[in-house]
Write a structure and sequence with these properties.
By secondary structure, the chain is of the alpha/beta class. The chain is built from 18 helices and 19 strands. The strands form 4 sheets. It has a 6-stranded parallel sheet with strand order 1-14-13-2-4-3, sandwiched between helices. Strands 6-7-8-9-10-11 form a 6-stranded mixed sheet, covered by helices on one side. A 5-stranded mixed sheet has the order 15-18-19-16-17.
């Protein structure tokens, strides 16, 4: 069980007998190697359940969706429930299958970051972070074939103070893992050398590491600030994960030229490529955001890919024996084996489950704030609890205080939270308890704003402008 700060709204979910029963069944492993169980939950409640399970089970969670826009929306909303430190988005490649186009740098980094996080559960002797990761992924990202898990783990390097390493061989090995040489390290996937000092930024780390050699021995390991290039906390050991799914060292073994090496060649570089499913530890929980929609998306992607492949072969732009760059639905289901799988939607739900029945849609006011305030006053008189999550929380709190001057500001702060959710609910708790969650969707009829990809972490060192000199 994770001993971390839980969102205050989760206490209402945790108090439900139906949730406690589900948690107990998951703890006993009842959803492993069994017929898929469908929760039939409304969409607005699914991330709250995920957040509660992450806190209670202490295991990595993979949330699978059918489309990238849906995955990005869920990922952005998940930060409200869990904070942003241990949430990971696993993106799909920018090109479609069989398109010989480069991936974006942000796609490369985010995917490798997820592989590195999950690898910590698979490398002997490593202790994963106390708070397990939550990975949100569209199905096309999971379908994409990648570096085999065994190859990834075998290529991961452990650096410790006192280790003896040949400096030149170390540099060559990093280049073989896909790291790019730079005069100054300012973003992940780069390394540099200044005499007996090597800097490297592994995709899984928030900060780069400075490795200082004394002869052929690692004398010190320190994190450093990429913006100022000043060293910070000393380390006793660190991990260097591969910096590219298309590792140059693996490509050379297959006789593939490194000129214009890209992820398009992944099926050719590795004889038995993997997928994200292979990186999940057996303890991981897989949540499906509607199995029928995910399966339909897989079928559509496969049909489009076959048509694209046929056209490219006819145009002599691809050889007829080009390896398959994706995994099929049956292979994805093979990845479900020995892991617990829970469908959040309605595909496998037989009637309304007790937990789904506890959530009811809330009232809608379409911007009529007087009706909204009257509703709050009414449920308050009934003794029902309520919370408002809105991008306009400060304005709504002030309006409510003006109509209820006898209430303290501190009490208002517990009811009005800043945030953006896709929707709210009326939660019918045990013993007649009721909790109302109201969002911009119910109050104003607004949808959540369009999610944009976050810019990658790139720091510009002050001496970078003099690097060429």
């Amino acid at each position: 069980m994770v001993k971390s700060a839980e969102h205050p709204l989760l206490k209402y979910l945790n108090s439900l007998t139906a949730y406690q029963d589900l948690r107990a069944r998951l703890a006993e492993g009842q959803f492993r190697d069994s017929e898929r169980f469908g929760m039939g939950l409304p969409r607005a409640s699914r991330l709250a359940l995920l957040a509660a399970l992450r806190a209670d089970l202490g295991a990595p969670i993979l949330l699978l969706t059918n489309r990238a826009d849906r995955a990005l929306g869920l990922f952005d909303e998940l930060n409200f429930w869990l904070g942003s430190e241990r949430n990971f988005y696993f993106p799909e490649p920018n090109p479609l299958f069989y398109e010989a186009l480069p991936w974006s740098e942000s796609t490369r980094r985010e995917r490798l970051n997820v592989f590195s996080e999950l690898a910590k559960y698979l490398i002997p002797g490593l202790v994963p972070d106390a708070v397990p990761p939550v990975v949100v992924a569209p199905i096309r990202a999971v379908m994409t074939r990648t570096i085999p898990r065994r190859e990834f783990l075998r290529s991961t390097q452990r650096l410790s103070v006192g280790d003896k390493r040949d400096l030149q061989e170390t540099i060559q090995s990093w280049a073989g893992l896909g790291y790019q040489y730079s005069n100054i390290v300012v973003q992940s996937g780069q390394f540099s050398r200044r005499g007996g000092i090597l800097d490297i930024w592994s995709p899984s780390e928030s900060l780069p590491v400075r490795v200082e050699f004394f002869g052929d021995e690692i004398d010190t390991l320190r994190q450093f600030n990429p913006a100022t290039q000043r060293t910070m906390a000393p380390l006793q050991k660190t991990l260097v994960f591969p910096a590219s799914e298309a590792m140059p060292a693996a490509a050379e073994k297959m006789g593939i030229a490194l000129t214009n090496l890209s992820e398009f060649r992944l099926p050719e570089i590795y004889q038995f490529p993997s997928s994200l499913m292979d990186y999940l530890p057996d303890s991981a929980l897989i949540l499906l955001d509607g199995e029928e929609f995910i399966k339909a998306a897989v079928n559509d992607i496969e049909e489009e890919s076959i048509a694209r492949f046929t056209t490219l072969v006819e145009q002599k732009m691809l050889p007829a024996d080009f390896p398959l760059p994706y995994i099929t639905w049956s292979e994805i289901e093979d990845g479900f084996a020995h892991r617990q799988v829970l469908e959040l939607g309605h595909t496998n739900a037989v009637g309304a489950t007790p937990l789904a029945a506890a959530f009811e849609p809330g009232p809608r006011f379409a911007g009529r704030l007087k009706d909204f305030q009257a509703y709050l006053n009414n449920i308050a008189r009934k003794g029902q609890d309520w919370t408002v999550v809105s991008r306009q929380s400060a304005r709504l709190r002030q309006l409510w205080l003006e109509s209820n001057p006898e209430l303290a500001q501190v009490e208002a702060d517990t009811h009005f939270l800043e945030g953006s959710l896709s929707g709210g609910w009326v939660l019918q708790g045990d013993g007649g308890k009721v909790h109302n969650l109201l969002t911009d969707s119910e109050i104003f009829g607004w949808g959540r704003p369009q999610v944009r990809r976050r810019a990658p972490v790139i720091s510009e060192a002050p001496e970078l402008v003099f690097g060429d000199l």
